[in-house]
Structure formats: C-alpha cells, structure tokens
Specification:
Structural class: alpha/beta
Largest sheet: 5 strands, parallel
CATH architecture of the largest domain: 3-Layer(aba) Sandwich
Organism: Lentibacillus populi
Protein name: AAA+ ATPase domain-containing protein
CATH class of the largest domain: Alpha Beta
GO molecular function, one term: ATP hydrolysis activity
Pfam families: AAA_5 (PF07728)
Distance between the termini: 38 Å
Order of helices and strands: HHEHEHEEHEHEEEHEHHHHH
Radius of gyration: 21 Å
CATH topology of the largest domain: Rossmann fold
Family: Belongs to the CbbQ/NirQ/NorQ/GpvN family.
Amino acid sequence: MNTNYNLPEQIKNMLQTTKRKNNHTLQNLIGEGGYVPPHIDLVIDAISALSLGKNILLKGPTGAGKTKFAETLSNMFYQPMYSINCSVDLDAESLMGFKTLAYENEKQVIEFVPGPVTSAMMHGTFLYIDEINMAKPETLPLLNGVLDYRRTVTNPFTNEIITAKEGFNVIAAINEGYVGTVPLNEALKNRFIVIDVPYLEGKQLKQLIQTNTRLANETTIDLFVKLSADLIQSVYQGKLSEDAASIRALLDACDLSTLIPAKRAIIRSIADKLEEERERKFVSNIADTLF
C-alpha cells in the first residue's frame, strides 16, 4: 500500500485486509503505483467502490493519468491486473481467448488459450479495459454479464459458463469525444461507478515531476508547472486540443530538458505531436514566454 496518501483509517484497514487475502502467484501483474491524485477523494472513492465489488470507469482527458491511476489501485490492493487495449479491431478472441493446436501424450489436441477476461475471472484479479469506447458497439455486450451482479460469461469458443472468483473487479478508462470513439450505451455505462480524473495542476503536478522525472532544478520545474497550467487553460478555451495538455507528454519534456534546451524539449515532446500547424505555433509561443 502506498503510505504517502493521507487515507482515513477505515480505508487503510480495508486495504490491509484485502492485501492479506490476495496471496497471488501473479505478482508480476501487480501495478507499480505512483499516481498523484489532484485530491485524495479520487483515491478514497475508487477504493471504496472496488472494495464493494463495484466496477469503476475512469473518465478524463488523454494524458491525465488514468492508466497510472489503475496501476496504483492494483498496487494498493496488492491485486494483479490483466489489461485490454480497445480498438476497432477488438473481437471476442481478444477478450475471451482462442483455440490452438497442442500436443498431449504425443497426440495432437485442440487447446483453449484464455484471454484477459477469462484469465482475470478465473484468477479473481483486476481487469483493466483501456479506452473502452474505442471498441465496436457489437463487441461490448459480451461483457454485460461480466460487469453486473452475475459476474458470469459464456465462453463462445467452448460454451463453458465462467463465474468470476472472489476478488475479480473491472476498472475501465474512457476518453470522450475522440476520433474513432463511440458513446457507451446506457446499459453498459450503468454497470460502472464513474470517477472523473482531471489534469494534475499546481503542487500535485510539481510533486509528480519531482518523483517521476530526472528534472531536479526547482526553478525549471516551476516553469514546467506554469507551462502546463497555460496549456490546460488554452484547452478549456478551445484554442488547443486535449493532446497539447497531456501530462504524459509534459513529463517527457521534463526528462528531455535535462539533456537539451527546455524549449526544444517542449517542441519535440508536445508541439510536434499536434496535427495543426496553428496549434504547434501556439505551443511554441507559450514556451517562448517561459523559457
């Protein structure tokens, strides 16, 4: 458990109890942790929901730290986590697994290789579904029984009914309004507790830069915090796309600035990722005023 969080005693005791229960052999699938929340309520609410067996949906802009948040929850619960990265190509095999040829006592047999959904259910671990609204709408109904009180699914490849072991929980993440995404239907959304994950700003962002990058100069760190605030404000005003305010990209720029000038690091890590020349120049101008 990450002891840096000022958690209520009830939540700490809940995590300690869960950690004693989770004596998994899949320790290599436990997240590293390290998420710095904008406010502690995010962590408390997520822990509370998962402890009650609820699914949680992390909603927020790209680069806000949703995946890092999920990994931190895995770490805090000492709970391994299987992951799915959704795309338009996601199909039942990607979720459930597939059949393949194998040998048993020198005889060729058909063997089923479990996918992330079946593996997480059979082991009683977390399942992380990233960018869930990137999947085709016709693929996701397969998960309805997995996500509700039944915690069961019929494997379409083996006709086996799989019931999740105790400890199974689902964490999903969503970026709304992006090209290729589709709105989640109400039946699916109602199976989640929604937690809005905003951008990190101010002291929390400064702490993240100090602990997750090689940048040590406090003056430069403060300038990067100011840069992030300006980029976020520009996104809210509609002058930049959300990609410009990605915290992940900002951390890359901080790391790179230890070896090359900060302005160039910002261009390489943030500005050059943007599609429109207008936006690239806008970011460059902001960087000029600070660096």
